[in-house]
Amino acid sequence: MKILLLYFLIVNVAAFAFAGYDKNLAIRNKRRIPEKALFFLAAIGGSIGLLLAMFVFRHKTSKSSFIVKFFGIFLIQSIVIYLKLSDKI
């Protein structure tokens, strides 16, 4: 259980940091981190970190296609967690 918590801590910190770095690159008009990379981090458990970064850095909050895809990942993860906690899977 401790390893799983450590994993989620690391992946969420990474998602937060990558989103912050991408925002910094956007401000400086540099080459950006692909959205696929941000979605990958969210999909492997970094949804909370990415969501937090979206609010803290105001990053990707006006891009509706990103928000729809992100919340799709978030919804699927929420359903899986609910089903796992209620012993249905």
Can you walk through the features of this model?
79% of the residues lie in helices and 0% in strands. It is an all-alpha fold. The chain has one domain (2-85). Helix 1 packs across helix 2 (35-56) and helix 2 (35-56) packs across helix 3 (64-85).
- Bulk shape: globular
Question: How many beta-strand segments?
Answer: 0
How confident is the prediction overall: mean pLDDT? 94
Helix content: over 70%
- C-alpha Rg, in Å? 14 Å
Keywords: Membrane, Transmembrane, Transmembrane helix
Protein name: DUF1294 domain-containing protein
InterPro entries: DUF1294
Observed structural traits:
mainly alpha; 89 residues; 79% helix; single chain; transmembrane; globular; 3 helices
Please outline what is shown here.
Helix content is 79%, strand content 0%. It has 89 residues and is mainly alpha-helical.
Secondary structure elements and their pairing?
Blueprint: H1 2-27, H2 35-56, H3 64-85
Helix pairs in contact: 1-2, 2-3
Protein name: DUF1294 domain-containing protein
Pfam family, one: DUF1294
Transmembrane segments: 38-57, 66-85
